[in-house]
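so my prof wants the structure for this chain in the tokens format not the other one, which i didnt know existed until like an hour ago. anyway here's the sequence
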Amino acid sequence: MQEDKNQLITYAMRFGLYLGAFWVIKYLFLMGAAQIPALAAVEMMLKLGTPLLIVYFLIKYRSAVSDNGLSYGHGIQFVIMLCFFASLLEALIIFAHTSWIVPSYISDIYGNALATIKELGVDGKTMEAIESQPAPTPISFTFSNIMSDVFWGLLLALILVPVANQFKMSKKTDE
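here's what i got, hopefully its the right format
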């Protein structure tokens, strides 16, 4: 299959918008879990939707650009770009949450992580080194989330591209 970079970017951006909107909804449940703990379970269940949506978008993309399948490398590129564009949309809500809605969110999770590390009985020097590290800023926290989403996209792509190539979809569904 001849790789068309314009189609790759166009479809990754379009489907990334949908995946990003899904991630925003999922993140809203995470935010709500601070007040209503049952929402954490809903958010965990929504996490399972990400691989399903990625497979669906891979199938739609494959059917739009080729009749005979999607190469492994091309599929991985698509999923990485899909997750990158989706993470940009999710980054907006994360930055708003950590900067304006609940500014203490990062320091709270950082403090909880330190307490957990102490409970594990980490030795004194290592604990001092960990405690001397400042909590991330909202910008660095958001950036690390974008990189995390892209990394998880890569890992999922390694598994899901062959899975998506097993399914067929009619060519008349262009979205």
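also thought this was worth mentioning. The helical segments are 5-32, 38-47, 49-65, 72-101, 105-119, 124-131, 138-164.
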